[in-house]
Amino acid sequence: MAxxxxxxxxxxxxxxxxxxxxxxLANFEELSVEDRLAVLWxxxxxxxxxxxxxxxxxxxxxxxxxxxxxxxxxxxxxxxxVMFDLAGRVDTPLGRTYGYFSANTKLGFWYQLxxxxxxxxxxxxxxxxxxxxxxxxxxxAVKKLDGGQQIQVLRDIVVNMGYDPTVSPKxxxxxxxxxxxxxxxxxxxxxxxxxxxxxxLAYFEAMNRDDxxxxxxxxxxxxxxxxxxxxxxxxxxxxxxxxxxEAQGLNMMPSRGITEYLPDGxxxxxxxGKVLTPWFGVNVAMNIAWRFALTAEGKIxxxxxxxxxxxEELLNLRPPSYK
Length: 323
Ligand code: ECH
What we know:
Layout: H1 5-9, H2 21-30, H3 33-47, H4 62-72, H5 76-87, H6 93-100, H7 103-119, H8 133-144, H9 147-159, H10 198-208, H11 212-216, E1 219-226, E2 233-234, H12 236-246, E3 251-261, E4 267-276, E5 285-294, E6 300-307
Parallel strand pairs: 1-6
Antiparallel strand pairs: 1-2, 3-4, 4-5, 5-6
Helix pairs in contact: 3-8, 3-9, 4-7
Beta,beta-caroten-4-one (ECH) binds near residues 111, 207 and 228.
């Protein structure tokens, strides 16, 4: 039985709980722009305490610098308008420029604005705004998430701001946009309880060295990678472009896994563990599952990265019916 992307997506279906994140993101979309910014401000000041942003590559802010400097010299009213337009995805020149930034560049942009807000250089949010009942409810839901889930929510919202004139497929983000440097030592010499297969171990070690060439060499030509809450990215070229832009400096700490052997020699594996992002270092560990579909030759046909709904899922690898 050969895998298809659809069959691989369904691997270990039902072995995880439904994540609260898609619902929270959908509710966020229903809020007014004022409410959105207020929720982001409070969510950020809660989690932001633990941000130990990695050192940024020297060239990395060049792209956003012009935009940030324009904002810096604006009046407070204009600054607020820019933020409203970005949050409301209005078609403006600034919104379009933002729309083309890679995820890390967008995060770096807001990170700088947040600093400037605290220093009084940029208009604060929200000076005299207390938030609607819906906004407060959403904030309560965000507070109940673990740290890893909270930063995922923040990241998804920031990525979807601005005006994006491209219809899918999205313009491939450029790696040189924004380089993040490692803050934590690279995790090497991994052992994963229950996993002896060389391919996933080689994958984790390559990713932990930011050696995306070595990681991509483990995939079949039309292989696919599915990031959390996203559609699969198909084909080696698209995957490596994505990795260069989004996976720099990540530390992957897989801890245990299970393997299912299929009659034709192919395998499906589920591995759980923690991932650190250079944005937060050791302050926030994300609970993650990787679901690999490996061909009989040991190549990666598909890997899905899932954000776990609860830490218990790190241990419960099988659906209830297997128990
Ligand atoms: C202020 C108010 C106005 C509006 C806004 C504000 C600023 C907000 C700021 C937010 C900053 C947020 C940050 C979030 C960073 C999140 C990072 C995450 C990373 C997750 C990575 C994962 C990796 C998974 C993968 C694995 C693989 O094996 C393959 C590759 C890959 C307050 C001004 C907006 C400043 C910095 C969640 C899960 C494991 C798929 C990448």
